[in-house]
Design brief:
It comes from Streptomyces synnematoformans. Pfam families: p450. Belongs to the cytochrome P450 family. Keywords: Heme, Iron, Metal-binding, Monooxygenase, Oxidoreductase. The protein is α+β, with helices and mostly antiparallel strands and 419 residues long. It has a single domain, classed as Orthogonal Bundle (Cytochrome p450), CATH 1.10.630. Helices cover 55% and strands 11% of the residues. The protein is built from 20 helices and 12 strands. The strands form 4 sheets. Strands 3-4-10-7-5 form a 5-stranded mixed β-sheet. Strands 6-12-11 form a 3-stranded antiparallel β-sheet. A two-stranded antiparallel sheet has the order 1-2. Helix 1 packs antiparallel against helix 3, helix 11 packs antiparallel against helix 15 and helix 16 crosses helix 18. The termini are far apart.
Length: 419
Amino acid sequence: MADMTDGGTVSADEKLTEEADTLLAQLLLSPEGHKDPYPLYAELREKAPVYKSQMGFWIVTPYELVNEVLRNQKVGRDAELFMGGRFGGEWNEHASLRRMASGLLWYNPPEHTRLRQAVNHAFTPRRVEAMDQTMRDLVDEYLDPLAAAGGGDLLNEFAFPLPLATVTTLLGVPRDEAPALREPMQAFQRTFEIGLTADELLDADEGMEFTQKYFAELIARKRAEPQDDLISALIELEEAGQLSADELMTFCNMLVSAGFETSTNTITGMVLQLTRHPEQLELVRENRDLVHNTVEEVLRYDPPIQINARMTFEPLELGGAVIPPQETIIAILGSANRDPEQFPDPDRFDITRPNISHLSFGAGIHHCVGWAMAHKQIGIALNAMLDRFSSIEVVEEPVHQPRVTMRGFESLKVALTSR
């Protein structure tokens, strides 16, 4: 069947694409979509679980299909294809895009396998475990002023500086130098957003040029005086021929950019959801064995990374559609995590939910390398807040950042009652 319009007939497939793209536009552009994308995801899953948008991307929303995209060997990363399609043929003139394209996230086997093994060698369980007391000390350090004041901006005074200090301490960045990386890294992270503007791209280039210069100088210092930190371990790999100098630089940028803002947004999202669901807050307060599951449910319910991009290497049959080679797929993690086919009553926040197999850390070979430390850090933060405060109250409705890929707030104002 087809509908008649002033311009002629419109096929059912074209009409479906238009309706799905209307939902997609609301997700990408509207304040309502930024604040609460989940009803729109549900409509997309129902209306068009797999479809090619007029933007040129294939959009995938159900859990089973998103999981397939993340794991299938016919799908991977192609920086030239993605960057060229998104930014044009001169994309590599931008420092931020060159660095983004050279990261581990954009590599495929066998290069990805080699680099993943190298970073795993440096990012050992022993090194992560050794950070345990450091993370506890940092949590107390950043909570002390909030406790003394009876509250404040939990995001900017606690949830942001904590992960930044954690990942930079792990790397070996001196504490007094770490804060200078915050704004340049935030500017760089805008490159992951579909709605990146020309001005934001210039800011991202400036941010990347700053961090490139900084890490070049820091690597030179560590090369001259190695220490027990991750940068020194990575320098050993470079000197042994397992990493190139450019790959070493990329790792430094990648680990900082990936290692702090996602944890920031998970911590603030966790506090917001627990205060909005006081019965859940009391459950975890009374039973600390639920801390791990609480973090898992927060990651499922409102993940800090909502979107993941992949490219097809071969024809891929997915949900009844055949996606040709050299196509870009946008897998929507936030939608997959609320799919009722995978999670019964998915819009209910439930820290006792069993088998929370969320996709917030990705899946397959690109599963987040720092997930264990991030999870540990968030759990330590939650335990400390429960220990120190008998009451946690959000006193202002938080404003969501106008972003889609990386979901978070501008601030989170809270009132705290110390024990």
